[in-house]
Design goal:
The complex is a heterodimer of chains A (212) and B (393).
Chain A lengths: L15 H8 L6 E5 L5 H10 L2 E6 L2 H9 L4 E3 L14 E7 L8 H11 E9 L4 H10 L23 H11 L1 E9 L12 H7 L2 E8 L1
Parallel strand pairs in A: 1-2, 1-4, 2-3, 4-5
Antiparallel strand pairs in A: 5-7, 6-7
Chain B lengths: L2 H7 L4 E4 L3 E2 L5 E2 L2 E8 L9 E5 L25 E2 L4 E2 L4 E5 L39 H14 L5 E7 L1 H12 L4 E7 L7 H16 L16 H15 L2 H7 L4 E2 L15 E2 H13 L5 H13 L10 H4 L6 E7 L7 H13 L3 E7 L13 H18 L4
Parallel strand pairs in B: 5-8, 5-9, 6-7, 9-10, 10-13, 13-14
Antiparallel strand pairs in B: 1-4, 2-3, 4-8, 11-12
Helix pairs in contact in B: 2-3, 4-5, 4-8, 5-7
The chains are: A alpha/beta (212), B alpha/beta (393).
Amino acid sequence: MSRLEPVRFVAKNMRLDLRLIAGMIAPGSRVLDIGCGDGTLIEHLFRTGGCDARGIEIDMAQVTRAIAHGLPVMHGDADADLAQYPDGAFDYVVLSRTLQAVERPREVLRQMLRIGARALVSFPNFGHWQVRWQLLATGRMPMTKAWDRPWHETPNIHPCTIRDFFALCAEQGYAVERWLAVDEAGRRAPWRRFPRLANLFGEQALFLLRRG
Amino acid sequence: MDTPDALAEIEHTHVTFADGLALDCGVRLRRLTVAYRTYGTLDADRANAILICHALTGDQYAAERHPVTGKPGWWSEVVGPGRPIDTDRYFVICTNVLGGCMGTTGPSSPRDDAPAPPPGARPALWGTDFPPVTIRDMVRAQKRLIEHLGITRLFAVIGGSMGGMQVLEWASTYKDAVFAAVPIAGAAFHSAQNIAFHEVGRQAIFADPDWQGGRYWQTGRIPARGLAVARMAAHITYLSEQALTRKFGRRVRAGAAEDGSPLGLLGDMFEVESYLRHQGSTFVQRFDANSYLTITRAMDYFDLAGEYDGELARAFAASRTRFCLVSFSSDWLFPTAQSRAVAQALNGAAANVSFVEIASDKGHDAFLLDEPDFHRALAGFLSGCAEHAGLRP
């Protein structure tokens, strides 16, 4: 029955930030993608890198779609469903644009680096100059491309800046192996070597961490 | 009622193992018969076999006209050419469970520990002397059949409700023999509430004078009323309140009272009552009361973690099986929390797990019904697994 055949993923449609993440993952790795959506990244990692990639997703419609595509995805969320995994079960644990929406970001990071040798974390940067300027100039909560919902509707309950995140990693003793700041389209900028500039001009950040 | 004879007279496809089966209770059945049906074709590598495990009152006639009721198979929505379990691609096996009444050894089988009856006399049947069986015993019996068919590894084991219990038992007892496992609307143990409902059903059977201490086969009068009440009580647990409201609401149909009085016990009847009575009366034509007692008991005993010192994750230690757990949002008999607990235990064993709750208002029975999201997820999971298993498309 043709309607049951999964439509195969086409790599060129993959979000740019997912491509950046995929570029940091070694072939053949064991990967857990938290907040995997319809499983685009895990399918890419399996098809192009032969990874054993699995996903957790909170939106049931996305979970259904992913499983119907033949992808190993389970319903669950970052706050509740990481504690069960054994130590070191994965080579990489990915949390893409979700850290700012979880209830306990520090605990989620701790769990990620307990169950995985490395963590890949991306988040929208609240230190971007437009965010700063809007709050200063208008006195109202900022609304930008990255922060696009009014304060009373946003699921993003824990916004942070790139410098905040560096500080948390230092405090927790996580080693930052790589980091980069990009604009909304995922393009890297020349100020990537300077955290203070990146914090001003980067719309999103991507960090590769390991236990210190 | 002559139904027990009708049940006994049908010739079911079966295989008999002369060396019997050792049971968890310590008794050894001297003879084991497993009745089964298959659909599709086993490929040359014997790699495309799927075992389907039926629920409490199901049987091996999953995808064809039932020989007793004449109705379509209980999973004909799911199993068949072009269906989610595609018989053009997979070789599907379904057995009647140990303790059942459709040809596999059970309470209505002849005792194997009695001398042969004199010519012309009816053989003594097990009845309530049939040894208690467990879900693991059922799975062991299925394993015998699978080996008999020359299959060393099942591509998948799939089942709903009690079938889901068997799937979990397969995946923990025979890890290397299961490539993919799909427990649907299942649980790793039977809860106090589940056991309580079963006990109501069993007491209804015991209370029927025609049960005759379980030796009803001697008189030919079966405990039809008790078994029907058991079925009626159980059937309520298979549906959701929304489903009952949608199907019947408070609608009333004309009753059987001869004086035409609309009220009272024998007057008009709510449609839901009429429906349940129909469910009860048709059930007794195809099911044996002692089998009902045996199988409900097997479900009640089930506690997979109990087989592993109370730690469910240990049941799946080092498992390489790919799991897909499915629950339904309105199922209050085997609620989503039960499937989630299994998924989390599988995470604890770092097993490969998919887990989805399908939005449905049809209650526990949703796994038997037309649920497009469930069917898409099942079909997609299987074809994903087929790719990993290297099955030919």
